[in-house]
């Protein structure tokens, strides 16, 4: 973690699943080629989806199952690799140390029956403690219990609470303010009028950011459009997790320089 917080003084750009969700410029998400391409383009951080296999290997995959319905929790690391899924340690060993890593821990249903140290987050803790010695690192999750396990088993690593599409932003800000996390990371849909919260129920964006910072937390918004990303930079966001890294890095270069 930098001396001025998790992300530092300049708003940081985080490459979502590498160069972006899906396939961007020929790079498929959550592959080594996509992550290395994002790094070569000058991205500050990358976001990595972390899951575990039945033999406790940590792999990089967003969905719990492959396209044919085979769950990664039911197969070995070798079998996952044969399906084109990369091991987490392979990525971290190949990624330049100047690039920060947001490890997005995907809790498995099977974690409900495991002791805390044997959950997906529990298995990641040792990796995170080691990795935090060579690069900026953030553990994020939609699962508050996973973040509590991270606090217990990897206490020196920053933690971030993720919230889902159109999750009420007021609840998210209050929750992060009273959880032992350093970052709140809502989806950008929560920051504009939506089906859950119309405009009359929403505070201005600047007020939301003010409350997050007043509570001692940093703010990372994920997957905003380019226009809304610019609004977030003006409002004082600390980091943006973005799709289409080639486009965004170029388009926002000047915006970040003047913030």
Can you characterise this structure?
The chain is of the alpha/beta class. The protein contains ten helices and twelve strands. The chain has helices spanning 32-40, 77-82, 88-94, 120-131, 144-153, 169-177, 205-214, 226-235, 245-251, 253-258, and strands at 12-16, 23-24, 27-28, 45-52, 58-60, 86-87, 100-105, 137-141, 158-163, 183-186, 218-222, 239-242. The strands form two sheets. It has an eight-stranded parallel β-barrel with strand order 1-4-7-8-9-10-11-12, surrounded by seven helices. β2 and β3 form a beta hairpin.
Along the chain, the helix and strand elements come as EEEHEEHEHEHEHEHEHEHEHH
Major sheet, described briefly? 8 strands, parallel, barrel
User: What would you report as the Rg, rounded to the nearest angstrom?
Assistant: 18 Å
The CATH topology annotation reads as TIM Barrel
Q: State the domain count.
A: 1
Q: Into which percentage range does the β-strand content fall? A: 15-25%
